Amino acid sequence: MKYKYLLLLLTATTLLLSVARAQREEIPYQDVTDICKTCVCLSSQDSNNGVHRNLNCAMKNFKHILARWPPEFGTKHTGTEIVASYSGNKIRLLQQLPATTAVVTFSCRHCGMQQLQAPLFMDVPNVEGLYLSWNEISDDALKPDLFRGPFNSTKYEPIALKDLDLSHNRIARLDRKLFEHTPQLKKLSLAYNRLSILDAATTASLASITNLQRLDLSYNGLLTLPAELFPQLRNLHILDVSGNQFAVVPNSIQQLGKSLQQLNLAGNPMTKIDAHSFQHLDALRRLNISEMTMLRSIELGALELPGLEHLYCARNPKLERLEFVDLLQSRNLTQLDISQNALTTLALNMSSNSSNASWPRLRSLAIAGNPWYCSCELLQALEQAGAPQVLQPLTVVPRCETPYLLAGAPLSNMTAEQICNMVIPKKYRAVEDDPPRFLRRRYIILTVIIASVVVVAGLVIGFIVVCVRRRLKGNDYGVQPIRYTSVRGSNLSAFSQLQPASVTSKFNNAAGTAAGAGAGTTGAPNA
Length: 527
Hints:
Elements (H helix, E strand, L loop, with lengths): L1 H25 L8 H4 L1 E6 L5 E6 L23 E6 L7 E2 L8 E5 L7 E2 L10 E5 L19 E2 L2 E2 L6 E3 L21 E3 L10 H8 L6 E3 L21 E3 L21 E3 L7 E2 L12 E3 L8 E2 L11 E3 L8 E2 L12 E3 L26 E3 L5 E2 L2 H10 L14 E3 L13 H6 L19 H34 L16 H8 L2 H26 L1
């Protein structure tokens, strides 16, 4: 009974595979006839008798890939390496690659690709490199069975994919089981996509690539990195998260302390890097914290990295503080770039042993483009670092900006002994922590004097005004006082007082005559 079920299962599987193969054969492929006259076909053999085939079909206006490998490549590909390029064509749908046992590197950049036929590598199990950048691939096209290998008895075999480039596409999330058939994947680039948030499925998908050595998540608009991303990535050596939106260094990176060797954080909007940002990253050799337009300070203790060899901290236009003394822990430092910042000085603890305050392997020191204040402290720090032998002028020569007596002078022409023994006139000396103008001593004294003059002048003017008013009041201002008469007084008496006596007597006689006449007149009718 069991054998019947097993036979039925095998028959069904064979039927499905044949149907799938028939469906694949119905999709048109590019004609292989005389393909080496259209494309470039090259063959070579190395010193170890390894055969290398190169098929270059770039920029040929193809809409499909080849149905088979060129006849010039032969039929037996075991022990052969094939490098195939279809970049610059118009291949919207990437079909299943033609069968081969050779080690394959496949490239199809700038093809406008939107769809991927699954399973893509069923007949190409030894594919090691796949480069599909600068296309229009979305997360819907990335299905778990895309990378599965040939079917073997009860399961699908994994493929040998080691390097996968999906940068410059439209990927917003990843399927949780996308990489279950790629156990050997070591390099993965997802730069310039739309992974602004690493959700649970995307995080689980990336965390499942346990052999991953290099991960590029740059320019995705990421705000943070989940803590669940790195615990299983114990072989991760290179992490690129530049060009994202990190306000601080993600704490989850510290989980890579024993494996991480290169970290790129350039182009993130950080304002400060504190003392615990790179804690536990003892294996870190290269650090890039350049092109941060908002970065102002790197706090004491932040750069205490014993394994650091290369530090790139350039083109940070607002960076005014960098604790140079932290780099004394990096005895293997070979390259240091702190150019194009806003740094004015560098300081080292000169009381320490000179052998502990130097970098014997330092070969390049770039400091140009900073507004340096050429002090004794700065020149001593540079000489202890190995200047002028290791100074790299690049395109801009490092020069003094202050004090004004040395403005414009190249730093490479100076020595600490000259600067330390130089007596700078007082008027050329820089005033550290210069207070605002209104708080400076001479301006305070000038303000007090002016205020005193104003008060005294006001008092004098007021005294003069009071004296004048009193004097004018004592003289009654030259005017007779006004006398008032009662309204009830006779107008006649008032008038008479103002007129001469003759006028008054005439006025009185006339008034009496008028009164007598009036009396006679009124009395006649009554009689």
